[in-house]
Amino acid sequence: TYAARQHQDYLKPEEVLECEKFRIQDTYGMSVTPELVEQDDGGRLIKKIVALEAILADPGEMITDDQGRECVSPPTVVVERDKSERERLAICTDWSNHSTAWLMRHRLGLRAVLMDLMSGVEIKGDEAMIQVLAEFSKRNASHVKGILNLTIPLDESSIWILGQYLAQLGLSTESRRPLEDGKRVRYYRLNTEDVEFAQKVLEYRQRQREERERKRQESLERDAAYAARIQAQYGINPPSTPPINEDGDNNRGGMDTDEELSDSWWERVKYYARLAIERLEDGVDAVKELLSTLTSDERCGV
């Protein structure tokens, strides 16, 4: 499988191609074509679309710190991405910090601009929100460079600066020059093909999230039903809390040291052992199913 092959030291050329084909198909939810492979650019495109997904998502609630300063929290999808990365790479401290990149784009006012552009609005570059975005970028050029890795020259136009931000999100612009009052005026809009492609990928990613959440809920319901069934069938109670150890000795793996409770524990273990022997006739899986319902002490006893 793809996950198993990622941990192998060496893969055959055909296995590398199979993994790459699976990655692209699973990432975009589309059939793999030479055009899509070129567009993917070694996985760079999906990172841009993920950033686009983040800035288009609804922001979280306002947060007020101890000094009374207010700051908007990132969307849930961004928070979960940062959280999962920290859990997966706990030993590493050089995380991507998606929330920081999102906050910079949000403070630039890029979300409002994108919402208009994604809906088909054309701009000339002299609009107030475009000018504010460009001025903010120039005033905070060092921060933009440090967070978004984007150099903002002070002598560039607002449309050029906006184009750099759009390129980081997998988008580009196209223009037309109609004649108005005897003069040619240039209007810019998002490239239609870029928008359609991004929307398809975003919809696919949303369906994936909904499917994962549905499976998670079903798993929780199955676990709850299974626990209730085992409780009703075998009368298994939650393990009791071990007594406080005053002399510092080991509590025998957390087992109660009270004599009466210990006798009860051994009786349960003997009962489970008999059940395990009976279930051997049904196969190993049946025994595993029984053992999975026991505590670690009870499994050791069995």
Describe the model.
This protein is mainly alpha-helical. It is built from 14 helices and 6 strands. It has helices at about 1-5, 15-30, 35-40, 45-55, 75-90, 100-110, 110-120, 130-140, 140-150, 160-165, 190-235, 260-280, 285-290, 295-300, and strands at about 60-65, 70, 175, 180, 185, 185-190. It has a two-stranded antiparallel sheet. It has a two-stranded antiparallel sheet with strand order 3-6.
Number of domains: 3
Number of strands: 6
**Structural class category:** mainly alpha
> Into which percent range does the helicity of residues fall?
55-70%
**What's the mean pLDDT score?**
83
Layout of secondary structure:
Layout: H1 2-5, H2 13-28, H3 34-40, H4 44-56, E1 62-64, E2 70-72, H5 76-88, H6 98-108, H7 110-118, H8 128-139, H9 141-148, H10 158-167, E3 173-176, E4 179-180, E5 183-184, E6 187-190, H11 192-234, H12 259-279, H13 284-291, H14 296-301
Antiparallel strand pairs: 1-2, 3-6, 4-5
